[in-house]
Amino acid sequence: MIEIAWCIQIIVALSILNVWFIRASRQTPFRGASARNLQEEFEKYGLNKQVFVITSVIKPLLAVSLLIAIFVPFLTKPSALALAFFMLGAVVMHIKVRDDLLKFIPALSLFGGCMAIYLLS
Q1: Pairwise CA distance, residues 99 & 30, whole Å
Q2: Is the pTM value of this prediction over 0.85?
Q3: CA-based torsion, 11, 16, 19, 20: positive or negative
Q4: Residue 61: enclosing H or E segment and its boundaries?
Q5: Contact 9, 115 (CB under 8 A)
Q6: pLDDT tens-digit profile of 38-63?
Q7: N or C: which end of the chain has fewer CB within 10 A?
Q8: Is residue 2 exposed (0-12), middle (13-18) or buried (19+ Cβ within 10 Å)?
Q9: In the chain, which residues have pLDDT < 70?
Q10: Distance between CA atoms of 94 and 72, rounded to whole angstroms?
Q11: How far is CA 84 from its chain centroid?
Q12: Helix, strand, coil proportions of the chain in percent (round to 5)?
């Protein structure tokens, strides 16, 4: 069971890192409210720049923490739960701007992955 959690941890962590470091300035079909980049997406959600900056530090740190947790298991549950909280927030923001269901898929998937990690660990 723990190996499944590790696989999910790697997938979730690399997905978060991909969004924040590789795709942050790119337009994707999953951007909320037709935003062209990650910062604009936060603006469209009505969130200020400080929320964007804080989130852009915390989410990647939690993703790295999930990777480290493979070797330091006591980090697993708190990292997964904290990241689940952020992903639930992302789902709420998609609801707030009335996005199509397609745009919810990554946030819902990552939320589900975080909850699976939490429950399997």
Answers
A1: 9
A2: yes
A3: negative
A4: helix 49-68
A5: no
A6: 999 999 999 999 999 999 999 999 99
A7: N
A8: exposed
A9: none
A10: 33
A11: 7
A12: 80, 0, 20
Residue keyed to tokens 């975080």: 114
Q: In the numeric block, which tokens belong to residue 42?
A: 């936060």
Q: What pLDDT was estimated at residue 2?
A: 85
Residue 100 token pair? 């199509």
Residues ≥6 apart with Cβ < 8 Å to 16:
59, 60, 62, 63, 83, 110
Residue given tokens 């709420």 in the structure block = 92
User: Do the Cβ atoms of 74 and 57 come closer than 8 Å?
Assistant: no
d(CA 118, CA 59): 16
Alpha-carbon distance 10 to 34, whole Å? 29
At position 13, the amino acid (one-letter code) is A
pLDDT of residue 90: 97
Predicted pLDDT of residue 1 = 72
Given a contact cutoff of 8 angstroms between Cβ atoms, the answer to whether 14 and 66 are in contact is no
CB 16 within 8 A of CB 110: yes
